[in-house]
Amino acid sequence: MNGIKLKLSRYSNWLLDSDYSIKEQETVYDDLLDDVIENPRWYLDQLPYLSEFRVSWINYGKQNVTKPYRFSKPRRKAKPL
User: Any idea what DSSP says for residue 16?
Assistant: First the structure.
């Protein structure tokens, strides 16, 4: 497979805003990483034309690297009052 097809929201590049669950986001991200490793030349050639997307388990303001979900720490849930 070369490339992954996604349906993104018109106004946001967050997968969560496009109704992808965390599990679906994880699958998309992992499949994309595998595809990039298998087809680096294709991705380098297509780089100017590819859209970027964001996954919901990353705080992009504080992190430089987007780790796969299985390597990220789960966020703490707020305690009820």
Answer: G
Q: Indicate the DSSP class of residue 24.
A: H
Full pLDDT tens readout for the chain, 81 residues: 567 788 888 899 899 999 999 999 999 999 999 999 999 999 999 999 988 888 888 877 887 777 777 767 666 554 554
Does residue 53 form part of some domain? yes
What is the phi/psi pair of residue 66, to 5°? -95, 105
Is 6 inside a domain boundary? no
Distance CA 57, CA 20 (A): 12
Q: How far apart are CA 54 and CA 12, in angstroms?
A: 9
